[in-house]
Recover the amino acids of this structure.
């Protein structure tokens, strides 16, 4: 296992002495052999805190996170003896609005900044930049341009290219499609699917969009009140009776199918996965 | 009575391409209108022009009968409040009460009046128990509610919500939509800017922007029935609406099913 959480708890300290519990007794295993995981749950449920444990940006208060064989616990690395950089290279974290973090004069310089920090030689980093710019759906001539003259969507892609250039095995993205319209969202998700399939990387996406979960993910992890309450297949999740308690929506296709069944007082013979399948089922009963 | 009148409005960020081209729009007092369009369609630009954050290249904007110019922009801003997309970018106070007071301070409200209004409007958006809280202790939806309280305290006639729910989770989104509905019922003129048709169907009228131009404008029901325009809009159609169109194409006439799909399209 690339990443293993064992009984992990974490509290944010607070000035008034009442610590805020963000993770409670989390057990979770993640492989780096091409998983496509969505991490969901309402605001404040612990999603972002959880992913920051995946590359040792945060250390658990109790329990341990083992990342590529290195066990991270409360007091690990107080004396900086363990090198955490290799972990951070293997597990690439893309925060919300990564485009705000672009700062260099050219797209090329921005992309090679990360790899160079991890000790990659300049010409190798440039070689990688030419490669990754294609993986994010842009062309090589973007490398000479200023990142600040690009559209928001292009900036997002450049910042993701910068993480890809570090050649992580696991790519974690915190709400990468937030604020995008459906077309922009689908384009970005297709891009992640390509990276996932072609480069065989594990993708972990934090999202609020249940359509994304249903359409793209092979596995879904649900956080609720600092606890991990579900880890499994997306289509099983949406049959779970707790879904309302966890404040999760249904994907449109499931929600509309259920409402149609209720209002027409019928049960379709199977569960449709898209609008065409639902239409065929409807034709059958009309 | 028209509270906003926009005639032949054009604006460009760069010389070669118009972000908005020849937009004409009138909004009645007390109306709720949605500006619907994809990323880059010009919808946020329109909002910025209406509140005078950007200056039009050509065309006129009248708010409550007053022509928007450099001289009248401050007067006009007292009539329009705006809630932006990113809750973190617009929280300027140190605490919730501080943030609600910010707009009133700029308008030189009397101190006692301010205290009264903070109490009144924090209650209205259900944030009165959080007055001493700092922004990092609040969820995105709570921060947006604080922004709404600040605007209500300034008592503007018009409130613009510029993708104000786009970054919230479902619960946060629904709570903001509830407040919008209520404010509209109480007589505020509402402009919601969105790429989400699910959100737009709540309003009385919809204006669709595409590549800076008005593609369509009309009553929500009329727009939803206009299959050709919606297909041309590049927007993602609502699922029940797609089914409704498919039934039509297949020439299936089942009024009961059609009515159900129509109600579902309208979030009912």
């Amino acid at each position: 296992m690339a990443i293993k959480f064992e009984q992990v708890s974490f509290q944010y300290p607070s000035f008034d002495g009442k610590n805020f519990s963000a993770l409670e007794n989390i057990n979770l295993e993640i492989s780096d052999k091409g998983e496509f995981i969505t991490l969901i749950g309402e605001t404040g449920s612990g999603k972002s805190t959880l992913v920051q444990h995946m590359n040792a940006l945060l250390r658990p208060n109790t329990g341990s996170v083992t990342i590529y064989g290195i066990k991270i616990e409360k007091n690990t690395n107080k004396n900086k003896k363990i090198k955490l950089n290799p972990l951070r290279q293997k597990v690439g974290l893309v925060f919300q609005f990564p485009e705000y973090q672009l700062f260099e004069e050219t797209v090329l310089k921005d992309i090679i900044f990360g790899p160079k920090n991890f000790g990659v030689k300049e010409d190798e980093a440039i070689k990688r930049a030419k490669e990754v710019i294609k993986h994010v759906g842009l062309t090589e001539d973007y490398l000479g341009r200023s990142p600040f003259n690009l559209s928001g969507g292009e900036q997002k892609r450049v910042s993701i290219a910068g993480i890809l250039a570090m050649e992580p095995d696991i790519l974690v993205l915190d709400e990468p499609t937030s604020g995008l319209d459906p077309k922009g969202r689908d384009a970005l998700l297709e891009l992640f699917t390509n990276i996932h399939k072609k480069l065989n990387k594990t993708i972990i996406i934090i999202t609020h969009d249940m359509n994304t979960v249903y359409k793209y993910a092979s596995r879904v992890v649900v956080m609720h009140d600092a606890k991990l309450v579900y880890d499994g297949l997306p289509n099983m999740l949406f049959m779970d009776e707790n879904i309302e308690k966890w404040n999760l929506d249904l994907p449109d296709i499931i929600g509309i199918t259920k409402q149609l069944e209720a209002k027409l007082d019928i049960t379709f013979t199977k569960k449709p996965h898209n609008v065409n399948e639902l239409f065929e089922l409807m034709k059958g009963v009309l | 009575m028209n509270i906003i009148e926009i005639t032949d409005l054009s604006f460009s960020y760069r010389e070669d391409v118009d972000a908005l081209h020849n937009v004409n729009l009138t909004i009645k007092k007390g109306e709720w209108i949605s500006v619907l369009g994809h990323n880059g369609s010009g919808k946020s630009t329109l909002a910025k022009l209406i509140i005078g954050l950007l200056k039009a290249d050509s065309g006129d904007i009248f708010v409550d009968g007053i022509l928007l110019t450099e001289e009248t922009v401050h007067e006009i801003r007292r009539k329009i409040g705006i809630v932006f997309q990113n809750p973190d970018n617009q929280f300027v106070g140190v605490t919730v009460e501080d943030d609600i007071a910010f707009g009133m301070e700029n308008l030189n409200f009397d101190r006692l009046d301010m205290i009264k209004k903070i109490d009144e409007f924090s209650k209205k958006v259900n944030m009165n128990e959080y007055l001493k809280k700092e922004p990092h202790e609040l969820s995105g939806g709570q921060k947006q509610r604080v922004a709404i309280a600040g605007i209500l305290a300034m008592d503007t006639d018009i409130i613009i919500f510029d993708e104000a729910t786009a970054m919230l989770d479902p619960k946060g989104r629904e709570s903001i939509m509830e407040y919008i509905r209520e404010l509209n019922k109480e007589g505020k003129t509402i402009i919601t800017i969105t790429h989400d048709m699910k959100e737009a169907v709540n309003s009385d009228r919809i204006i669709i922007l595409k590549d800076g131009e008005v593609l369509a404008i009309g009553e929500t029901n009329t727009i939803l029935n206009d299959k050709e325009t919606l297909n041309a809009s590049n927007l993602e159609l609502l699922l029940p609406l797609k089914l409704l169109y498919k039934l039509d194409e297949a020439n299936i006439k089942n009024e009961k099913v059609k009515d159900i799909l129509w109600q579902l399209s309208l979030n009912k």
Summary: The radius of gyration of chain B is 20 Å.
